[in-house]
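Why do we care about 3D structure at all? Because function follows from shape, and shape follows, mostly, from sequence. That is the central idea of this module. The next example makes it concrete: a single protein chain, its amino acid sequence, and then its structure expressed as tokens.
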Amino acid sequence: MFPHNQIGLETEYKTIYDILFKQKNIFIDASMFALSVVFMAAMANIMIPLWPVPITLQTFGVFIVAFFFGSRKGLVAMLSYVLAGIAGFGVFAGFKAGPAAIIGPTGGYILGFLACVFVVGLMIERGYGRTKKSVLLCMVIGNAIIYAFGLVGLRLFLGDVGLWELLMAGLIPFLVGDALKMVAAVGLFPYLWKGSQKLAS
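And the structure:
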């Protein structure tokens, strides 16, 4: 079942980052944030090109960042990724870069990554994400956040479209892929904790 200490209580669990790096400093943090940008860029460009929003492994990468870092450092890592893209590095899907990526059809999803990684990271710090059921809960909540931001941004980009057209453009084609990502996460993520603890021991 889920942890007895629900979100909002004081107990804070260690993240994978905390387990692996007991003695952290600014150089380790900066290096791991830089690696996160490279990792997210790779995930963003494993893709099936659709219009207006492609299918990528980007969202899977967001969850890995959240599980690894937790809320605050996860947010810094994801913000580093977003800022790298805005600055002109081709880290977004299709190797896109620049401010246009944020105001384009995928902009809402990219902003949703920031909210998702913070909320899911906070759940990780409160003891979620260790069992298959709580991993699934993290995935469902995180995906809901990303889609909420993404559909709002896509609606602003497309203009006057109906609800069905909006869902067909920015939600429905991705549900099967997201379901597969959830299955992969439920199978993989609990073992990340065991693996990190073995490495740290």
